[in-house]
Amino acid sequence: MTDLTGQIALVTGASRGIGAATAQALAAAGAHVILTGRDTKALEAVEEAIFEAGGAATIAPVDLAEGDGIARLAQAVTSRWGALDVLVHAAAVLPQLTGVTDIEAKSLANALTINASATQALIARFDPLLRQGKNPRFIHLTTSVATSPRAWWGAYAASKAAAEVLVDCYAQEVRNITPIRVAIVDPGATRTSMRAKAYPGEDPLRNKEPSVVGERIVSLLGEEFASPHRERINQPS
Predict the structure, then answer these.
(1) How many domains does the chain have?
(2) Pairing mode, if any, of strands 86-89 and 181-186?
(3) Of 63, 86, 183, 224, which has the highest C-beta tally within 10 A?
(4) How do residues 84-123 score in pLDDT, each as one tens digit?
């Protein structure tokens, strides 16, 4: 099993779903996990679950749509820990699924801000901290429509494709001059509220639990991989 004892990990979108499950898996592996998200009450529930399981966590509510929020978060992490070993970027927003001709400008702008611009801001603000980490890893969660676009998914696919390009370029820029390694992970069909919103008629029991994704991410952190690394987490057999 991956041993992350003594390491500091930050998870965006940690209030629910894959982010929460990943945070709990990281804590179970020994990391002190910084939980970020907009819903303070939900973050406190995840923090309590980690405490009850014997882990360590700190909540840091932040709205990724606010650029200065990311800057404040980075400053707080710098002041308290001075380094970051793991950054898991799980936060994302799913805009309305509609044809490209019907996309509302405000909805597209919000998706691009949270899914793409915030990704760049996280990289820019936390790169100095990752460079100070022990065997630092940046895990970015993506979606299959970022590289295989589908009708009606244009706004979400475009925003996540932009994020993927930013992350891939960053991985190439730092892989030969820093110890930072980057993985772009597609969690596949997972039982989350976002999945239910996208596929309201689907039987959720057909999809894997978020804990499967969290456990795979922790396992990946214990592996040596070329950067950027890409993988899709399939349904367990």
Answers:
(1) 1
(2) unpaired
(3) 86
(4) 999 999 999 999 999 999 999 999 999 999 999 999 999 9
Return d(Cα 158, Cα 235) in angstroms, integer: 25
CA atoms of 35 and 12, how far apart (whole Å)? 7
Partnered with residue 32 across adjacent β-strands are: 8, 56
Q: Is residue 74 part of a domain?
A: yes
Residue 3 lies inside a defined structural domain of this protein? no
Give the type of residue at 87: L
Question: The domain spanning residue 184 has which CATH number?
Answer: 3.40.50.720
What pTM value is reported for the model?
Answer: 0.97
3-state secondary structure of 169: helix
Q: What is the CA radius of gyration of the chain?
A: 17
pLDDT in tens, 130-148: 999 989 999 999 999 999 9
Q: Which domain holds residue 23?
A: 8-232
Q: Is residue 80 part of a domain?
A: yes
Cβ(119)–Cβ(166) under 8 Å?
Answer: yes
Domain annotation covers residue 173: yes
Q: How far apart are CA 144 and CA 150, in angstroms?
A: 10
- 226 Ramachandran zone, left/alpha/beta (phi>0; psi -120 to 50): beta
